[in-house]
Amino acid sequence: MELTARQKLILKAIVECYVETAEPVGSKTIAAMPGMDFSSATIRNEMAELTNLGLLEQPHTSAGRVPSPDGYRLYVDELMQQYRLSEDETHSLNEALDLKMKKVDRMLTDVGKLVSRMTDLPAYAVASRSRTVTVRRFELLMAETHCFILVVMLSTESVKNKLIKLPLELTEQDLKLLSAVLNASLTDLELTALTPELLAKVERSAGAAASLVPVVVDFVTAVLTEEQHSEVYLTGQTRLLGQPEYHDVAKAQQVLSTLDEDIISNLPAPTGDKPLQILVGPEEVAKELKDTSVVMTRFDIGDGMEGLIGVVGPTRMDYARVTARLSYFAESLGRMFGKGETLPVGPEPPRQLKPPSGETPHEDN
Amino acid sequence: MELTARQKLILKAIVECYVETAEPVGSKTIAAMPGMDFSSATIRNEMAELTNLGLLEQPHTSAGRVPSPDGYRLYVDELMQQYRLSEDETHSLNEALDLKMKKVDRMLTDVGKLVSRMTDLPAYAVASRSRTVTVRRFELLMAETHCFILVVMLSTESVKNKLIKLPLELTEQDLKLLSAVLNASLTDLELTALTPELLAKVERSAGAAASLVPVVVDFVTAVLTEEQHSEVYLTGQTRLLGQPEYHDVAKAQQVLSTLDEDIISNLPAPTGDKPLQILVGPEEVAKELKDTSVVMTRFDIGDGMEGLIGVVGPTRMDYARVTARLSYFAESLGRMFGKGETLPVGPEPPRQLKPPSGETPHEDN
DNA sequence: CTTAGCACTCAGAGATAACGAGTGCTAAGA
DNA sequence: TCTTAGCACTCGTTATCTCTGAGTGCTAAG
């Protein structure tokens, strides 16, 4: 069944009011809001109805109403208006984005910190490969005596190397042969394709350098695993303490101690078509995390990788604003790193309850 | 002036009792402890005296006493008995230490996490070079057309590389020349020795590849800087919430928000002879951090690097136990990474108040 | 020098009362 | 039929007060 326009309006007002104050909102408060042309009694009746529908909750009999997870869900899916970043905001975001981008992992921690700071909530960043990684080319380089450097060029344009001590006397010729064999047999293969049979074959062709094959393969395996593997960078956990719902230390501690990298890496990633995803409440995030929601978005890092940045916060968070900032971030990062194909950003345009006016939907406080 | 033996005994008892309970301790509590053969009145007198000396503090008139920072200082310097790790503890420490050690930075975060978990307090880890890093050798490696790989072997045994696109047509001969020039002029030099004059000279000798010199130098500078630079890995901040002194969220938040990598990196490192250092209270740590102390210890990572692991906690922390665990850690890590030269560990043997007996000084709770 | 005794202090725990925000329901009005 | 003013009722919050007891400093006797 569908809500009436008035019920939607009231639900929206309640969510936004609660987001701001973190306190149960009463019928009078809503009635007093501009644009509300009904009496508090009418609103009370509607609120009772919304409560029956499971969209609102009542902490106790004589308190105001609080949105339920379902209520939030409806809000973010249908009612939320897109928050427009102000000049100031885009400016400071741009400024912050001007980080010296080094390696991907460093970049990710920086991005995580940044997002956390901008939203004043814990944030995380992950990079994951959208394509599999393979070795594109091997090079063996004599270093000092008894040493050579194994250089491995990957399909991701990155180059890895290792200094290997020779267990036995080998000539430059032997290394040349090994190099040729490796390049002939082990390039452009996924990790799973490195079967024992294949390796045995390679070893047989490697002549005097056969004993080096396992060493090389170990390194390759390690590198490919490492490259494939994605680590979660979680920062700013303590910002949760600023939120009123965590003013009880016991609660805060409980949440903070469960909120670790493991939890994060088990969150469902946004599916294909929509880069932005909002997980509302314990059912969608993790049941240990009461009153906690997650907003995340995908972005393009280039080189066959995609990044994921997310923000963790109380279910009562300003989804509109967080979403806007996150999307802007993702878009900018995509532009900086990606191959130009910018991802679509922002939540889908909300169905407007009133004809869109020129003013910014939200006040900044 | 020197304290009497009885005063020391009482101070020690007070500190240890307070460490355990986190509540001001009264004269009766002390009098009731085994080994205390004086009445509570006597102890009251002594406590008054210790208060005069600034070693104890009284939260309010009718409360028990709490050690002052000076009191702690005296305790850790003179009174603290070495905590002996139990079988169980060494066992689980050893188990935890069996981490797959990869790169130094990964290792450090792991160590930080581990220490944090073992002490149930925030912990940090830093690596810093005790020797300066230099480039030991350059290699230039033709990759695909218009591309070559710059390989740089460092004095730390690690090897860095970069894929460089050629801005112009160059023959393998040109690269050979460049390589020779680089190896002749730019090896074994500290970062500061890379003067503009030197670089100009190199450029002149580089023939056709002159335009590549700046690219190479940029990379070298970046690598050396990166290698020299030491990052602080701070983890487990939220464990502070478990401590009773931070049961007030406002306080916790204040501490947690000041406790960042900057603060940590400004802490004084342990000086030459003693690897372990204890910083007590705000004066010694940071004035923003009320009631906070730091215990840190140095360890050897090998390859001319040394590590620093530290624990941040309330001034009322179990120094004996934290110290013991940290030292054990440092020792084990030193053994795993270091060149065999184990650092001396543990606080210097305390002057015993009573002849040392066979039993474990502390009870484990 | 030690210790028993005593009067005094003061934070914290409960108990009680007053407050007020918010509700549901009813009945009158549009 | 929908809206709204009015009202009794609920119940968490806050303030005030008292009471309790741990702990102190001081004094005087052992």
Please name the defining characteristics of this protein.
Beta-Lactamase; 365 residues; Arc Repressor Mutant, subunit A; 3-stranded antiparallel beta sheet; 13 helices; homodimer; 5-stranded antiparallel beta sheet; Enolase-like, domain 1; DNA-binding; 42% helix; alpha+beta
How is this structure best described in words?
2 copies of one chain form a homodimer. With 365 residues, the first copy, chain A, is α+β, with helices and mostly antiparallel strands. The first copy, chain A, has 3 domains: 5-79, Winged helix-like DNA-binding domain superfamily/Winged helix DNA-binding domain (Arc Repressor Mutant, subunit A, Orthogonal Bundle), CATH 1.10.10.10; 87-122 and 236-336, Beta-Lactamase; 135-228, Enolase-like, domain 1 (2-Layer Sandwich), CATH 3.30.390. Helix content of chain A is 42%, strand content 17%. Chain A contains 13 helices and 10 strands. Chain A has helices spanning 5-21, 27-32, 40-52, 69-79, 87-97, 104-119, 172-185, 196-205, 213-228, 249-258, 261-265, 281-284, 319-337; strands spanning 56-57, 66-67, 123-129, 135-142, 147-154, 159-165, 232-235, 276-279, 292-302, 305-314. In chain A, the strands form 3 sheets. A 5-stranded antiparallel beta sheet of chain A has the order 7-3-10-9-8. In chain A, strands 4-5-6 form a 3-stranded antiparallel beta sheet. A two-stranded antiparallel sheet of chain A has the order 1-2. In chain A, helix 1 crosses helix 3 (40-52). The A-B interface holds A 102, 137, 139, 141, 143, 149, 151, 153, 157-163, 226, 237-238, 241-242, 246-249, 252-253, 256-257 and B 102, 137, 139, 141, 143, 149, 151, 153, 157-159, 161-163, 226, 237-238, 241-242, 246-249, 252-253, 256-257. The structure holds a DNA duplex (30 and 30 nucleotides).
